[in-house]
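User: Can you fold this complex?
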Amino acid sequence: MTDLRPGDASLVRKVNTQVTLRALRREGVATLTQLGRITGLSRQTVEAVLDELGERGWVREVPPDGGVMGRPARRFGFRADAGHVVGVDVSGDRVVVTLADLNGEVVACERVPVAAGAPAPERLDVARRACLACVDGAGVARTRVWALAAGTSGIVDRSGRVSLSLTLPGWTGVDLAGIAGRWFGCTALAANDANLAALAEHWRGSAQHASDVVYILAGHRLGAGILIGGRLHPGRSGAAGEIGTLRQVGWEEAATSLVKEGSAEEVFAGAVAGDRAALRAVDRYAENLAIGASALVLAVDPDLLVIGGAYSQAGDVLLAPLRRHLAELCLSGPEVVTSTFGDDGVALGAVRLALDRVERDVLGL
Amino acid sequence: MTDLRPGDASLVRKVNTQVTLRALRREGVATLTQLGRITGLSRQTVEAVLDELGERGWVREVPPDGGVMGRPARRFGFRADAGHVVGVDVSGDRVVVTLADLNGEVVACERVPVAAGAPAPERLDVARRACLACVDGAGVARTRVWALAAGTSGIVDRSGRVSLSLTLPGWTGVDLAGIAGRWFGCTALAANDANLAALAEHWRGSAQHASDVVYILAGHRLGAGILIGGRLHPGRSGAAGEIGTLRQVGWEEAATSLVKEGSAEEVFAGAVAGDRAALRAVDRYAENLAIGASALVLAVDPDLLVIGGAYSQAGDVLLAPLRRHLAELCLSGPEVVTSTFGDDGVALGAVRLALDRVERDVLGL
DNA sequence: TCACTTACGAGACCTCTTTCCATAAGTTTC
DNA sequence: GAAACTTATGGAAAGAGGTCTCGTAAGTGA
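Assistant: Here's the predicted assembly.
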């Protein structure tokens, strides 16, 4: 249950501050009267709220807009650059850092390769340097980073510790959130990469209008992320969606079955060109994929199934057989689409996660 | 996102009414001063709120409690009998009706057998009569039933229509919520029986302290219900957890494998007695069960797995092998327990669902 | 009967919101 | 260039809620 706290008059101010701030963020720039109309509050109240927000540095007055009739109205804008958040994707062979302002607009991006076999301390150091370089390069003061979120492959528990990683050496047991928190001295979060990719699709990608989403990361390895009610569902131990370990679903074979015919890219290219062996290989892959996907789909019954990861670039060559096999397994399956962001979604989803935290903690709720 | 409405002073009153009402419901009977301490509100405010609630009929003043020192305090109690809710379980061979007051205390219960082959209209009529008889028998005015919820096997969509039933004749397509709403002229809901059983366990049974729960109904047929964050997760089409159709998980064989050796009860009894053939049969059943369960567990990663349904009465004879097989399939599975209510949980969960609705709509939020 | 304890009730004061009205600062028209 | 019109601003007053304080009421125990 939501534990409800009693409210005095200041609660009303809190709520109205929220309402006003949200409206202003949507509008970008607005006058007092406009905000009053939008929020349903009186102009006076909006003014008082905005004064307070101005003092706190959230809001800035911008020059009035000439040209219209009547006395020019004071105009206010949300200071999206009052703070920033960092999203990091620490994957097998690279680190991707995305810096965004409070509106979620991406300000800078940094990609740094890292050796697949790099031990954990080295990988962490690469990530740290990349984050600092990204922030410094964008001319953002390090103290202006209010939150950071990191995504990585493997199972990440609620506290942001990597509790199991099969692919990155020495990665199991790394307290990713704890360590990353010290980079900027801000709150830090960590989550599974597929989960974050799902979040990114829900935010700005293919899954914007879906509430419950299953995201399948189809690449050299297979992973899955789940959104329930538009929010991350990590599960008790952060392992929700990690269905790969179940032998019956055959996700372990899936990847190997594909590369038997050559590199994955070659196989998909061949399938596009109409090569029958390649088509068969893709079909087999899709079938294996569908078994695991259907387990997730039947369990969660999502609005949408998003296929991401490197292989999703193959598009309909993969999707068509996947849809077919899925339809056989699930009586009434969800819509299936490819991801908008592919691998870049992880860092973007991390940004969203960090923003969620900032909006909850700093902007209050 | 939650759409936030601006608040004036009356918002504060609404919130404080909520807080007070909740506290009073927890306490049962309390004085103004006690409520003030609990809620953090001033005595004055509590008094004003209670006056208002008294006028609306939610709250009643009860005689003061003598014996303690000082001036006797006025005492107030929540009027749990101001309204009632009905929970119905329409299953293959019987209808169970549970009538509860606003505290969720069960006031009356009615069990009526119904022929397994009964067509839908007859089944509905039996359910209707049972509901009316239960309410009338308890001396509760029919207009005092504020909400009704019905649980049934099969897939029930968001609107409360049975979109697929494989076991009840003519049941597919029945608008259960719509029809049941006319019985008392109140809001009516319908949901899958396993989902409601899960809700009951979370409310008052084995799953009270778990937030994410997978409930498996193990009986003549197999079904599953899922709770996320303590709330029902029906999924897009109401089919969340309906993993039985997936051939790989082998839930279809599970049931048949058991009864090959005789009736299920005999087999479990034999296993308890140490009969080797029976033990093997139970082990095979547990193994099949574990495959489907692990798919759900890996997908959702719940805090708790509850085994309900008729077979759960076998207790450790079933649970021990189930835990063993599950541990093989899921690296770090959740705790596994048997249900508290068994089959009775469906009607009780329906009560909880109806109460949730009443609390949201009538008591406001 | 007196002291002690606990609850009640009225009044003062604070916060936040809304409504109303006079005033300011532009544009358009004559 | 002045008058009329439009739109925004700023201050005063009123109302709804909530808290705090203090005197009073209504019990118990000696």
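Chain B has a mean pLDDT of 89. The longest helix of chain B spans residues 276-300.
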